Amino acid sequence: MDYHSDYNNLFTNYTNFNFNMSKILIENYKGWEIYFDNNKENFYTSSDSYDRECIKTSYAAAKKYIDDFIKDNITFEPIVIEKKDHRGATQIKLIGIRKDGRFVYEGKDGKKEQLSEWDEKYYYLPTEENNEALKKIAEKQQIIDDISLEISALEKEIIKTPIIQQLKEKYKQLIG
Asked: Which CATH class is domain 79-126?
């Protein structure tokens, strides 16, 4: 066994490993990968989605580049969404998205308002498929309402006088 050649192979593999580790992934930021390059001591950003790369001297500069690129190159197309509840249908027009991911819509008075994360779950796109599902929901809700009315009518048959009044009458005879 040749220990000298094994040592050389180990050393060669180790140096190749270090060479391949010259770029260390720091973060995946808004779909962009930010690496720190040990050899050049700078930050390297890349995006497969936008087919872009950039080298910056600081982490903050790399993030700013990404934010500026997205702001300059991504356009938000306004879209109408709606929700239905017991008051009826409400439509709003989404006109943008903030850096924190919250949507901005045009309010009744024309002012920009933020759509809360709580309310997001109640809105949907007004599509034909959704309209079909909403019709089925309305049919099922009507069945529930009809059953509730039947139950209320049956309860009125059972409870002809309030229970408290019945108990008072019963114990009134015992007391005197």
From this structure: mainly beta
Q: Distance between CA 18 and CA 16 in Å, rounded?
A: 5
Our CA angle for 85, 154, 143, nearest 5°, is 35
Indicate the domain borders of the chain: 3-73, 79-126, 129-175
Residues 125-159: pLDDT tens digits?
A: 888 898 898 899 889 999 999 999 999 888 887 76
What pLDDT sits at residue 64?
A: 92
- Strands (E) across 14-166 are located at 23-29, 32-37, 42-47, 52-56, 79-85, 88-97, 103-106, 112-114
pTM for this prediction: 0.48
Model confidence at 160, pLDDT cuts 50, 70, 90, reads: low
